[in-house]
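Here is the promised in-class demo. Please do not try to memorize the tokens; focus on the logic of going from shape to residues.
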């Protein structure tokens, strides 16, 4: 019991076979609530903390403040005739200035040519389809997507989820990032 709250710390052990050497690689922490004769996990209290020797570093800087950048496609739909978008790929960078920009997507070899704008924030990447085009819902449902960054020739997947909605009569896909990512990370 700590500060009037029930807290639990559970050691996570790995058994290295065949040597039978057991190492503690971290701890699961959580809070408990006592409700009507029994205990339950306190909402939002569960987290894992790796032991110092077993930490895996994530190269992304965590965003310390909110930021946003919008990149507008200057080239129109550039020959995309299929109205259902299923393969939208591109390499995009947030500029040092952070000022919204305009760029032609016509040189990219995918259906990103039919995306009118891409908005980056510290928590999401939002693609808006050009008028008359829509993102395929089954792509998001099947988790058949990836948002990646590359740092020092290593690629990291940074998406947590995707959702396809409609805004102002346009199809929109919103990728929620797995953690608040700094603008500096997206500039590199």
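The designed amino acids, position by position:
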């Amino acid at each position: 019991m700590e500060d009037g709250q029930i807290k639990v710390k559970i050691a996570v052990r790995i058994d290295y076979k065949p040597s039978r050497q057991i190492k503690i690689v971290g701890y699961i922490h959580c809070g408990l609530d006592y409700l009507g004769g029994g205990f339950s996990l306190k909402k939002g209290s569960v987290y894992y903390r790796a032991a110092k020797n077993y930490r895996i570093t994530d190269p992304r800087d965590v965003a310390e403040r909110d930021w946003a950048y919008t990149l507008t496609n200057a080239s129109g739909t550039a020959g995309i005739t299929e109205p259902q978008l299923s393969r939208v790929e591109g390499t995009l960078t947030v500029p040092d200035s952070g000022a919204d920009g305009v760029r032609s997507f016509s040189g990219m070899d995918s259906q990103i040519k039919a995306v009118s704008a891409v908005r980056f924030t510290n928590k999401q990447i939002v693609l808006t389809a050009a008028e008359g085009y829509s993102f395929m819902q089954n792509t998001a449902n099947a988790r058949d997507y990836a948002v990646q960054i590359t740092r020092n020739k290593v690629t990291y997947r940074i998406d947590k989820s995707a959702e396809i909605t409609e805004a102002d009569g346009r199809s929109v896909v919103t990728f929620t990032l797995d953690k608040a990512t700094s603008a500096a990370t997206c500039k590199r």
